[in-house]
Amino acid sequence: MAAAALTDHAVEIAPGVHWVGALDPHLRSFDIILKTANGTSYNSYVVRGENGVAIIDTVKENFADDFFRRLESVASYDEITTIVLNHLEPDHSGALPELLKRAPQAKVYLSSRAQMMLKALLKPTGERPPEYIPVTTDDEVDLGGRTLRFLHTPYLHWPDTQCTYLVEDGLLFTGDIFGCHFCDNRLFNDTVGDFRFSFEYYYAHIMRPFREYVLDAIALIEPLTINLIAPAHGPILRHAPRDYVHRYRELATPRLFNEARSEKTLVVFYISAYGNTRRMAESLAAGAESIGGVRVSLYDLEGGESGIFTDLIEEADGLAFGSPTINADAVKPIWDVLSSLTTVNIKGKLGAAFGSYGWSGEAVRLIEDRLRGLKMRVPVEGLRIKLVPDAGELEECRNLGEQLARHLTGRVEHREIDMAALA
Amino acid sequence: MPKAKVTFQDIGVTVTVPAGTRLIEVSEKVGAGITYGCREGECCTCLTKIVSGGEFLAPPSILEDQVLKDNMAPRGHRLACQAQIIGGDIVVKPA
Questions:
Q1: Which residues of chain B lie closer than 8 angstroms to A413, CB-CB?
Q2: Which of A70, A317, A331, B87 has an alpha carbon 20 to 30 Å from A142's alpha carbon atom?
């Protein structure tokens, strides 16, 4: 199959619509966290109407020359009336300051939350911000015979993100959603190499923490007539584009039916050297289970893998972590789990910590600080017990479990306290 | 020192606080569900619904007002990292 993007010319993806992006085949990791075995692409598009030309997104700054050469092959700068910014991350806005210099008459359309990012982006140039218009779902720009309609699709994967729909042609410019880090100069999904792994890998690492927002976006996208999806990275999806929308819905939906869906779920993780923290975990779990409406799961961190635990954590309403203190710290398997959660959304989940200790007992407070840092709520002070818990102390563990369950089910008794009494 | 009462509706806790306390100082200590990002009034992560007693919070600064507007915050919402309690009874919950 012939390469579509071997020259400096724009590539037509639909009548009057061109790809003017750039290929980055030598990139091997993106944003530190993502592997890119054959590089990536930065996709930018030109849409020509009877009354003007629109540019949809730009490219990473050091690929600006490729972008401008391709752009110049299909449009002159004085024709550009409209610049749409679906996402302002630097890999899509890197050429924007220069584009604004070359087409100062263009109006910029972006989401409301992108405005502050635009100002920050242009700060080093010293240039006055261009005329920009915040838009939301169903706002439109008329290019003359062609209409760009916006879809407010935030948090995919920044607060600023949006999609843009070319109404008459059924083309959807989606920013990062439906994209992937995959570089192939054949450009289109029906001509490039097998990129399916990259598509799913990208979802798992970029979109998964925002899966509720993914489902909101899909609800806006599914009713549209879609002839082609033009993402900001990776292949242009012209063959069976709806399959990719469907796949996103599958990826954003839990795989198996959640049998505990009618209840709140509390997952208790523990690790124990001598069985003391384990006994605390068992009592805590029993206490939580005794409160109706809460389904408790108990796991020993020594018996699992962090990927599985991440899946469990994503689905849980509440999480309790039990660790002994060894050399003034919580133990490594706890930190392994608590440092593996960037791919899931845990903001606002209920968190708690507990553990047995021999001498100083720092682990519980350190875990609580980490849970707060992860934006979880920690409404009940954790429990530290010196070495072997006795019957009374196991009852305290049980009480902690009951309190957590009450918080999960909204049945907490109202308390009045003085701030001076808080640690 | 004048005192105020702030109730975190999501966790059912009322805290007596000295006037001048910011919501962030007490909500974190008490473990309420308000979450924080930048803590400097820019990111809007800590958007909080003021259920009642909004008049007992110091008025928003120009910066907070702009951030609330940019983020299309509904009426009766404040940034917990910025909102300062000046007295009375206030009831809040995460937005």
A1: 12
A2: A70
Distance (Å, rounded) from C-alpha A414 to C-alpha A72? Answer: 67
Q: Which two tokens stand for residue B44?
A: 């809007």
Beta-carbon contacts of residue A47 (< 8 Å; ≥ 6 apart): A16, A17, A53, A54, A56, A143, A146, A148, A166
Q: How far is B12 from chain A, CA to nearest CA, in Å? A: 5
DSSP secondary structure code for residue A128 in this structure: P
Q: Are A59 and A42 in contact (CB under 8 A)?
A: yes
> Looking at this protein, which amino acid is placed at residue A141?
V
> 3-state DSSP call for residue A236?
strand
**Which residues numbered 76-95 in B keep a CB inside 8 Å of some CB on A?**
94
Distance from CA of A310 to the nearest CA of B (A): 21
Find, among A390, A387, A379, A385, the residue nearest to A417 by Cα: A379
For residue A206, report the phi and psi dihedrals to the nearest 5 degrees: -110, -45
A135: its two tokens:
């838009």
**Best residue in B1, B9, B10 to probe A by mutation, most A CBs within 10 Å?**
B10
DSSP one-letter code for A188: B
Model confidence pLDDT, tens digit, residues A271-284:
999 999 999 999 99
Residue type for position A4: A
Lookup: tokens for A259 = 């049998």
Band (pLDDT 50/70/90 cuts) for residue A2 is low
Residue type, A42: Y
Give A107's DSSP letter.
E
Complex-level ipTM: 0.89
Query: What is the CB-side half-sphere exposure of residue A62 using CA atoms within 13 A?
Result: 2
Residue A41, CA distances (Å) to A235, A236, A245 in order: 8, 11, 20
Q: Which of A380, A414, A416 sits opposite B31 (nearest CB)?
A: A380
Q: Is the pLDDT of residue A305 over 90?
A: no
Predicted pLDDT at B43: 87
b/e A225-253 (16+ beta carbons within 10 angstroms → b)? ebebbbbbbbbbbbeebeebbeebeebbe
pTM: 0.84
